[in-house]
Design brief:
This protein has helices at residues 8-19, 63-73, 87-92, 94-115, 148-167, 189-201, 222-233, 251-261, 291-297, 305-319, 327-335, and strands at residues 2-3, 24-28, 53-57, 77-80, 120-126, 171-176, 179-180, 208-210, 216-217, 220-221, 241-243, 249-250, 271-273. The chain is an alpha/beta fold. Strand 1, helix 1 and strand 2 form a beta-alpha-beta unit. Ligand G4F is lined by residues 85, 87-88, 126-128, 177-178, 187-189, 192, 210-212, 215, 217, 251, 277, 279, 282, 286.
């Protein structure tokens, strides 16, 4: 059972679990337009027998709905990925963010507890929780959240651990650092840049407007991160893990790399500053120390910063009908000969 199934991570995780012969259920929010674009390629018509993907209407703010679905589905594993996941927006909507991202987790944990079923629970915690704690951060680093989003995730992280200890439930936190892909939402900085670079290349746009270029992030590749989520729920004993590449790069470096790879040269003539993208409090630098995941889960990322930029740009070129430079596609073929996800 996946909350946030139609999000970036939910879509890859669905493909991973289907490739492992799971029956997958997920909640989507009702909207007046279709919001399932990321999972349309694996959608299965419910009128056909033998399908393994089931979508249900649901919302993290509706405890009755969550209780009912968990009672009906009786899942073995819950991957709780649903969230208002945009840090900047959480400053505009702090109460909604806390309701969804903090209380939403509590609602699911209570539903599991009340079900008396041996359900394993994965909580999508975040490196944002470390905030201004100096890098590199690991499982023992104190949290110092710098946004309503991060505060809500700290609550979810702690309540997940608390249910594990108090009720002996199989609950784990994956403390994931930023992970990106061609399916990343277009308002997050990596996708905003690669999409804009492709549009500039195609002659559709002239400029991109950005905020703080000096912030540094530890950016990884989403398919590898959803593999970590799955492994985390297959441990013998529940435990929390940092999942990261251990490299950090600034938004400025991302711009340099993307414009160079696209053959546009210097990025400066194309980029303008817009204060609306600044945050009241910024997280300056995130670098994860994922030694524990390497040693205990045998998890290690293969795609790092430069490859990630290439993979994302090739996809954005293709989306506009442009011939991609092709290095990203070549890397994917070489590194993942048995790829289980659709290449966008
Ligand atoms: P995403 O693309 O924004 O997906 C979030 C999903 O949550 C969307 O499908 C969204 O539904 C759903 N959602 C939002 N509000 C909801 C509500 N009230 N009820 C039910 N569903 C709701 O985020 P992501 O990148 O896949 O991230 C997945 C999770 O990992 C999130 O919890 C995020 O905070 C966390 N995380 C992400 C990263 C990262 O770098 N990507 C790093 C650390 C942690 P709609 O499709 O209807 O909008
Ligand atoms: O891409 P971002 O919006 O990601 P951010 O804030 O790091 O959050 C993402 O990663 C977290 C894990 O650490 C997740 F928990 C969270 O759900 C989300 O997936 O911003 C990255 C950096 C920030 O420092 C921001 O100030 O880019 C800077 N930035 C500069 N200009 C911008 C922009 N960010 C956005 N979104 N848009 C800009 O125009």
């Amino acid at each position: 059972f996946i909350t946030g199934i139609a999000g970036q991570d939910g879509s890859y995780l669905t493909e991973l679990l289907l490739s492992k012969d799971y029956e997958v259920h997920g909640i989507i929010r009702w909207d007046s337009i279709f919001t399932t674009e990321r999972i349309d390629h694996v959608y299965q018509d419910p009128h056909v027998n033998g399908i393994r993907l089931f979508l249900h209407y649901g919302d993290l703010t509706d405890s009755g709905n969550l209780e009912k679905l968990i009672h009906q589905i009786k899942p073995d594993e819950i991957y709780h990925l649903g969230a208002m996941s945009h840090v900047r927006v959480s400053f505009d909507m702090p109460e909604y963010t806390a309701n969804t991202d903090a209380l939403g987790t509590l609602r699911i944990l209570e539903a599991i507890k009340n079900s008396d079923l041996p359900i394993k629970f994965y909580m999508a915690a975040s490196s944002e929780m470390f905030g201004s704690s100096p890098p590199p951060q690991n499982e023992h680093t104190p949290f110092h959240p710098r946004s309503p989003y991060a505060c809500a995730k700290v609550f979810s992280h702690d309540i997940t651990r608390m249910y594990r200890e108090a009720y002996n439930m199989f609950c784990v936190n994956g403390i994931l650092y930023n992970h990106e892909s061609p399916r990343r939402g277009a308002t997050f900085v990596t996708k905003k840049i690669t999409r804009a670079v492709a549009r500039i290349k195609a002659g559709l746009d002239k400029k991109i407007y950005l905020g703080n270029l000096e912030a540094k992030r530890d950016w990884g590749f989403t398919p590898e991160y959803v593999e970590a989520m799955h492994v985390l729920l297959q441990q013998e004993k529940p435990d929390d893990f940092v999942v990261a590449t251990g490299e950090t790069h600034s938004v400025r470096e991302f711009l340099e790399e993307a414009f160079q790879y696209a053959g546009l040269g210097d990025w400066k003539p194309y980029v303008e500053f817009d204060a609306r993208y600044l945050r009241p409090a910024e997280v300056e630098v995130l670098v994860g120390d994922a030694t524990k995941a390497k040693e205990k889960l045998n998890w290690q990322p293969k795609i790092k910063f430069k490859e990630l930029v290439r993979v994302m740009l090739d996809a954005d070129f293709r989306a506009l009908g442009l011939t991609p430079p092709g290095e990203g596609d070549r890397i994917l073929k070489e590194v993942f000969p048995n790829r289980w996800w659709k290449n966008d």
